[in-house]
């Protein structure tokens, strides 16, 4: 089988890793890939948003199956282009990808489908948005409707903070085109769970649930980021919860997208807020696997990922995916200054004797002309540990993160702190607080 993975981050490294583990003899390619994928696949130096060149490469390489990682090429119609040329693709059409590319569209779909989600209004006019904010209870959530690299949702504790955020988006163009339409919604109380459904548009096969950590600082403080780590599985995601999510969220949304002439085929990500009654409220939808959740989820898959992808790419129901009874914790190593102004260029040292069960997925890395691995992005490396018990996976991930070196390294040492609080041996609320910074670069926080 000839497989092409589109993307260059930690998610795509994890996808390549999972595919190679299941298909040791496959002809695997990654466009553009990164230094981590080059040991698993043939990197093809084409940017993810260059739809024409990726389609040409798929034709030239005789690709049998393409798995599209990021949202941008999906929103730009890469899946449509490949399908029009007779190729099998895991990823929705541009029309269906609007479920992520336009939060306003997603809200409209959910309203029509009767899916639980926060009450909201959509605005393009600054004055109207500010007037609505002034009349509503605190806290509020302000979201750029378009694609903003996971940073376009801002939880605002006060109306003043919400008004300032609306001004930054609609008045000052903080997120550019993505922020020309703004969704303002009520704040949902509860705990978030990330759920990934592989679907042909009718039937759904779930991967293990995960929980992402969006805030930069431990204890979920500080600015919003693209994700500082994740763990899987999540105790909240019981079989009963998954049944409700399928019945109350996935099947109604898939039916509504079909009704609109935009059937969804690929991976539908639902960011869910679980309230005290166990009701899954939709925070957001994504049209692909999440990052960094994929780096925690796929290492738990024993077998069946490739087959499920192949089946949904051919319009068939996804086959069962076999999951090992273990826990995975992923710690993101970020560059100093992330998320606003990450510092690039520092050399990276990864020890060669990390323990069994630990995998380092590359995200923002590149090799210079001399072959030295260097920091090139905000999120640099993802350190995933798999162990029979959650506490052991959490410890292994944290300790491996401490041993990897680069100037300005920043990471959270409390990934999975809510799950740890649910364990009998550790009281809830005992998580540490603060920011983990390598000793040579420690700064006041």
Overall geometry: globular
Q: Kindly report the oligomeric state of this protein.
A: single chain
Specify the CATH homologous superfamily of the largest domain.
ATP-grasp fold, B domain
Q: How many domain units?
A: 4
* Distinct helical segment count: 13
Mean pLDDT: 93
Tell me the structural class: alpha+beta
Give me the CATH architecture of the largest domain, please. Answer: 2-Layer Sandwich
**Largest sheet, strands/sense/barrel:** 5 strands, parallel
Q: How many β-strand stretches?
A: 26
Alpha-carbon distance between the termini?
A: 50 Å
Helical content band:
25-40%
CATH class of the largest domain: Alpha Beta
Flag low-confidence runs.
426-445
Name the beta content range: 25-35%
Q: What would the CATH topology of the largest domain be?
A: D-amino Acid Aminotransferase, Chain A, domain 1
């Amino acid at each position: 089988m000839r497989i092409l993975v589109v993307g260059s981050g930690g998610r795509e490294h994890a996808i390549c890793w999972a595919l190679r583990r299941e298909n040791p003899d496959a002809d695997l390619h990654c466009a553009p890939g990164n230094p981590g994928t080059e040991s698993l696949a043939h990197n093809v130096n084409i940017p993810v948003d260059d739809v024409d060149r990726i389609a040409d490469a798929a034709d030239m390489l005789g690709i049998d199956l393409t798995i599209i990682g990021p949202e941008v090429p999906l929103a730009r119609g890469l899946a449509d282009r490949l399908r029009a040329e007779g190729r099998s693709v895991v990823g929705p059409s541009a029309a269906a990808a609007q479920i992520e590319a336009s939060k306003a569209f997603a809200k409209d779909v959910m309203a029509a489908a009767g899916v639980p989600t926060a009450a909201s209004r959509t605005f393009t006019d600054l004055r109207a948005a500010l007037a609505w904010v002034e009349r509503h209870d605190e806290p509020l959530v302000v979201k750029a409707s378009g694609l903003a690299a996971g940073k376009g949702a801002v939880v605002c504790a006060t109306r003043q903070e919400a008004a300032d955020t609306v001004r930054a988006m609609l008045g000052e163009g903080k997120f550019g085109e993505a922020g020309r339409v703004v969704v303002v919604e009520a704040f949902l109380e509860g705990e978030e769970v990330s759920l990934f459904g592989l679907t042909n548009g009718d039937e759904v096969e779930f991967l293990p649930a995960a929980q992402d950590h969006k805030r930069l600082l431990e204890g979920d403080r500080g600015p919003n980021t693209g994700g500082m780590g994740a763990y899987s599985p999540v105790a909240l995601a019981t079989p009963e919860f998954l049944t409700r999510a399928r019945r109350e969220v996935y099947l109604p949304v898939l039916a509504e997208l079909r009704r609109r002439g935009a059937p969804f085929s690929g991976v539908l990500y639902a960011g869910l807020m679980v309230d005290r009654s166990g009701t899954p409220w939709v925070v957001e939808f994504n049209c692909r696997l999440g990052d960094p959740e994929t780096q925690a989820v796929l290492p738990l898959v024993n077998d069946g990922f490739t087959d499920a992808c192949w089946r949904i790419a051919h319009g068939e129901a996804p086959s069962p995916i076999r999951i090992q009874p273990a826990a995975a914790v992923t710690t993101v190593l970020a560059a100093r200054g992330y998320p606003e102004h990450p510092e690039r260029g520092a050399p990276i040292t990864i020890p060669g004797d990390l323990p069994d069960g630990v995998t380092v997925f590359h995200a923002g890395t590149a090799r210079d002309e001399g072959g030295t691995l260097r920091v090139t992005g905000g999120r640099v490396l993802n350190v995933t540990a798999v162990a029979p018990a959650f506490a052991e996976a959490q410890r292994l991930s944290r300790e491996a993160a401490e041993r990897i070196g680069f100037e300005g390294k920043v990471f959270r040492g409390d990934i999975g702190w809510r799950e740890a609080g649910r364990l009998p041996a550790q009281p809830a609320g005992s998580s540490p607080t603060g920011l983990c910074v390598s000793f040579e670069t420690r700064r006041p926080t």
